[in-house]
């Protein structure tokens, strides 16, 4: 009798965790860490070092529009290669292509260009810190665009903590440098665009059974086409910036947008999106390591403290969703996301679509 009562309590306790938490715990306990941790760390290194590659490109004279174009162009090549190798289908619904066009604009073309522009004025380390604010902006857009999601005290506290962290990074008590302020504002607009893109994805592309790689290939291709038209108007004629910087653009697109996605998807399939999405907490660390040791950038105490506050704010906002999204299934992720589970995380759970930094 006592044993039966104990079992009943354990079952009740398990149910109280919710299906998402229970599945994540089960996944972690069932999958050996050695099978997914290396890929997890590699993805964080790739995405964190991407800011240094952007910095190298812009300092070599590659204009922001072309940095964004090469990222999308080489990324699309790799993604379509994966689609062909895996013999995945292509959607015929024009609405899917239309929504992917919007997502490609606000999740790739626009923010990619802005981050490259912003790094003309700030270090790659600082850009990496600003990238970690994406979950906070995503949460703001979720509250604005999805009426079923209500702001809670914990989420509001997380946003406030992130805001304080941003002010610390800027060093507002000393007035801040004009270049730092300009570059930071540009990068923050980019992260706000990411947040909008993830929320739009959740609302319009999170259902259905279209393979994630296919959807990603379509959206990145749309972004490449847009930039092929807009980059000449914004950034003039492309030019050869040297073997090193151009090789950096190939790596930034092919590896950062293409291969890393595939590796991240393996992590997602092993342990779920909740665990995989925490890669975003490591990207500022790798951005700092690469920026300081390879680009000789400075790392002030306020940048470190501000980054810790921003990531702490993101962690505070990560709560369980108020109710499950229709069609939600098993999970995926590419970067950090906001909550109530990040739109991109829910997107990944339904289609395998990762988030991007």
Could you describe the 3D structure shown?
This protein has 357 residues and is an all-alpha fold. Helices cover 72% and strands 0% of the residues. It has 15 helices and no strands. It has helices spanning 2-16, 18-30, 37-59, 64-85, 94-118, 124-131, 134-145, 153-170, 178-204, 212-235, 243-271, 273-276, 283-294, 301-317, 343-351. The radius of gyration is 20 Å and the shape is globular. Mean pLDDT is 79; it is low at 1-30 and 320-355.
List its salient traits:
357 residues, mainly alpha, 15 helices, 72% helix, disordered N terminus
Write the layout of secondary structure elements.
Layout: H1 2-16, H2 18-30, H3 37-59, H4 64-85, H5 94-118, H6 124-131, H7 134-145, H8 153-170, H9 178-204, H10 212-235, H11 243-271, H12 273-276, H13 283-294, H14 301-317, H15 343-351
Helix content: over 70%
Distance between the termini: 54 Å
Q: Regions with pLDDT < 50 over 5+ consecutive residues? A: 1-30, 320-355
Radius of gyration: 20 Å
What structural category characterises the helix and strand content? mainly alpha
Reading the helices and strands in chain order gives HHHHHHHHHHHHHHH
Number of strands: 0
Mean pLDDT: 79
Strand content: under 5%
Quaternary organization? single chain
Shape: globular
| Tally of separate helices | 15
Largest sheet: none
């Amino acid at each position: 009798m006592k044993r039966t009562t104990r079992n009943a309590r354990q079952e009740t306790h398990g149910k109280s965790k919710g299906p998402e938490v229970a599945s994540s715990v089960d996944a972690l306990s069932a999958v050996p860490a050695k099978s997914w941790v290396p890929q997890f760390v590699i993805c964080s290194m790739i995405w964190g070092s991407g800011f240094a590659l952007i910095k190298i490109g812009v300092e070599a004279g590659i204009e922001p529009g072309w940095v964004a174009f090469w990222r999308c162009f080489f990324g699309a090549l790799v993604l379509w290669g994966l689609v062909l190798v895996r013999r995945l289908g292509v959607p015929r619904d024009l609405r899917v292509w239309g929504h992917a066009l919007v997502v490609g604009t606000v999740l790739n073309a626009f923010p990619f260009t802005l981050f490259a522009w912003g790094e003309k004025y700030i270090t790659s380390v600082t850009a990496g810190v600003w990238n970690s604010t994406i979950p906070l902006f995503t949460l703001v857009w979720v509250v604005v665009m999805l009426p079923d999601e209500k702001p809670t005290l914990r989420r509001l506290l997380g946003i406030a903590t992130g805001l304080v962290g941003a002010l610390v990074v800027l060093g507002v008590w000393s007035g801040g440098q004009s270049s730092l302020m300009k570059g930071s504002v540009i990068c923050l607009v980019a992260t706000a665009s990411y947040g909008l893109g993830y929320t739009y994805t959740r609302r319009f592309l999170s259902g259905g059974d279209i393979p994630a790689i296919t959807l990603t290939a379509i959206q990145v291709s749309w972004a490449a086409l847009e930039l092929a038209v807009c980059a000449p108007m914004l950034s003039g004629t492309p030019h050869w910036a040297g073997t090193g910087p151009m090789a950096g653009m190939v790596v930034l697109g092919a590896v950062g947008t293409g291969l890393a996605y595939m590796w991240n998807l393996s992590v997602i399939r092993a342990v779920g999106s909740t665990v995989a999405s925490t890669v975003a907490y490591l990207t500022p660390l790798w951005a700092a390591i690469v920026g300081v040791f390879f680009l000789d950038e400075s790392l002030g105490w306020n940048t470190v403290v501000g980054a810790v506050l921003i990531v702490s704010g993101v962690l505070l906002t990560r709560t369980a969703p108020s109710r499950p999204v229709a069609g939600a299934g098993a999970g995926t992720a590419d970067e950090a996301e906001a909550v109530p589970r990040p739109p991109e995380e829910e997107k990944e759970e339904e289609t395998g679509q990762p988030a991007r930094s």
